[in-house]
Amino acid sequence: TETETTAVLPPPHPGAPSGARPATLEARSVSAWFGTHQVLAQVCLTMPAHRVTALIGPSGCGKSTFLRVLNRMHELTASAAMAGAVLLDGEDIYDRGRRITHARRQIGMVFQKPNPFPSMSIHDNVLAGLKMNGIRTSRGERDMLVEECLTKAGLWKEVRDRLRQPGGALSGGQQQRLCIARSLAVRPRVLLMDEPCSALDPTSTRRIEQTIGELSSDVTIVIVTHNMQQAARVSDNCAFFLAEQGTPGGIVEHGPTEAMFERPQDPRTADYVNGRF
Ligand code: ADP
Ligand code: MG
Q1: Ligand nearest to the CA of 241
Q2: What is the pTM of this model?
Q3: What whole-number distance in Å separates Cα of residue 122 and Cα of residue 100?
């Protein structure tokens, strides 16, 4: 059973502007079920440090489930089960000797619909994950962290004079950047993003894409997107998921994004990236 733990913020890593040390995430033969319904079968994928990996594929092929498996959220759903392993720089995040918070602190998540705490201040929203993850910080450290994370999320200049205003007063795109800032506050080594721009207008989308580009030097990014142009713009590597009639989801093809788009090896990938289904 999970109990409250206390920990300190990881020390800034001199090589990375964010202070975090990006990690390589590796899924080894990951399968997942909801009850008896298998939604992923033996997915193998390496998501290298310092790179953006895009997960593409039609609705219902298991992309969100895969992301949830990657940070131990899948197991929070009743009847959910998984098999296989997820390695963070070689360390199994499902290791029975480790608490769930050990994985969650290192692997952050941003969702499709921006979900800041609407009545909580912008300042407190950024810090909200620290307590939840049992991380203690000093007051001075917290104020610096708020500025650091809002800067990294590309929001600092817009909100520096209104940090005490509620998160819910921001526009949708700003709220999503606030959520990115919140997930960065624990100095994660990997950031998982599940269609982070689907609910946003094109201008906000471009701002987030720009932020992703800037963040990729200090956090490993895995992004699910329905937008092929976005995958082409933001990712280094790409994995194409598919769940064919009556079969669980799996990866048809993966590799460097440019090669996947220019010279897909599988006809199903070619059809998908060219918008034929
Ligand atoms: P994607 O993100 O690629 O659209 P999902 O991972 O959301 O795919 O869903 C994969 C499959 O798992 C779908 O068939 C979906 O209906 C099923 N599924 C997703 N969430 C649940 C849940 N909480 N309970 C039962 N089935 C689910
Ligand atoms: Mg999804």
Answers
A1: 1
A2: 0.93
A3: 27
